[in-house]
Design brief:
There is one protein chain. By secondary structure, the protein is an all-alpha fold. It is 53% helix and 0% strand. The chain is built from 13 helices and no strands. α11 packs across α13 (244-254).
Length: 257
């Protein structure tokens, strides 16, 4: 399609945001998993684990995330903080694509370390946040997450934007935690960060739609493409650029745009 003038493009995307950023979105999206909980720590841990396995078929992501919550006794924070070694054995049965039981156990141990020694997930992401972006913060989070003894193979399940990764799943997770959308989809429970610092979760769908709309030129969905898309979306709304994730995703997945 021909490139729309900025005002028309913004109006078109704003309309798509209101179409998709509502409670109906939850029904088919992995964000439904943290919505099963009310306690802050349960929401952020269930959200982090769900976002970690959020690639591939959406139905399978949701089913496996539900199964993982059951393995954590549907009390993720309590399990993370108070598990015994014997409790971890049942996690060996868990698998989602290349994320297996060993990775799962490593994540629980790393999360316990984060809460016991670093003040929790929000504190770690906030500590290294920059005014304009959280990509450096994500990189520092990864090094903190793996500063304890760990399996080398598990490192691949946390992206590092400073190694040119678009870090799609962590950016999606941060959207859930930081952005308060008043529509009941994103939680907005991390007050120490602001929506203006967020980056759009960039994947095949959002990337293809962004290119068709002239928001993105780079062909690969990598860290450089994310920076380019960030710049474009901030021109449309500097305070809440990632609200357009709903528009790009909805156009790509639901409308085959």
């Amino acid at each position: 399609m021909k490139k729309l003038p900025k005002a028309e493009l913004k109006a078109f995307l704003d309309e798509k945001v209101s179409q998709y950023n509502n409670l109906k979105f939850i029904e088919t999206d992995p964000v439904q998993i943290p919505h099963l909980f009310t306690k802050k720590e349960d929401i952020e841990i269930s959200g982090f684990l769900t976002a970690t396995i959020a690639w591939g078929n959406r139905k399978s992501i949701i089913n496996n995330a539900k199964r993982l919550m059951q393995l954590l006794d549907n009390a993720p924070y309590d399990f993370v903080m108070h598990h015994q070694d014997t409790d971890l054995e049942k996690l060996l049965t868990f698998v989602h694509r290349t994320f297996n039981g060993d990775d799962c156990i490593q994540f629980i141990i790393a999360l316990q370390h984060i809460y016991e020694n670093h003040g929790g997930l929000e504190a770690v992401f906030s500590k290294h946040a920059e005014k304009a972006s959280l990509q450096n913060s994500i990189s520092k989070f990864k090094s903190t997450f793996f500063e304890i003894e760990h399996l080398q193979r598990t490192q691949k399940h946390v992206s590092d934007p400073l190694k040119n990764s678009a870090a799609k799943r962590i950016n999606m997770y941060l959207r859930w935690m930081v952005r308060d959308d008043n529509a009941g989809v994103d939680f907005g429970i991390w007050d120490s960060l602001t929506p203006s610092q967020l980056s759009c979760p960039l994947d095949v769908h959002s990337g293809n739609v962004a290119r068709k709309l002239g928001l993105l030129k780079r062909k690969q969905n990598d860290g450089k493409a994310l920076n380019e898309l960030d710049t474009s979306l901030r021109k449309l709304d500097a305070n809440d650029p990632v609200k357009y994730d709903f528009a790009l995703f909805g156009l790509g997945v639901f409308e085959g745009f």
